[in-house]
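Troubleshooting log. The previous structure file for this entry was overwritten by mistake, so regenerating from the original sequence record. Sequence copied from the archived sheet and checked twice against the printout by T.R.
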Amino acid sequence: MTNTASPDRRWLSAPLRRVLALAALIDVILGALFLLGPEIGLSLWPAQISPLLSRFIGAIVVASGVGVLVAARQGTWQSARALFYVGLVYDLLTLVALLYHLFFMGAPSVFWVYAALDTIYLVPIAYVIWTYERASGA
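Regenerated output below.
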């Protein structure tokens, strides 16, 4: 595919679209597990959470997966931009909250794994935003 005249209509690279499709699949599966967790006796969170909170988390994660799938299928920076910014803000705030709880609130050590995973997602999200926004002149 080639880029169109508008910078916002710049096509996402094929590898990025595949990564987005994989992320969407993972989100939908994880979200479904959170949604159904109370019924099947599965808890994906290392601390006790209520069934209502598990379903709330599941709904958000499934919705995110659907949004990412739509962006991957449409394949333009314009269709993906808002989701990348949501991901950036979410990951930054999550990382700050995790570090605060780990350093000052005595959170269990297992949350270091969550902090590491959050950072693994945060770096490429920031890189993609920087790359596409710089190329579009935004």
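Confidence is low (pLDDT under 50) at residues 1-5. Archived copy saved in two places this time.
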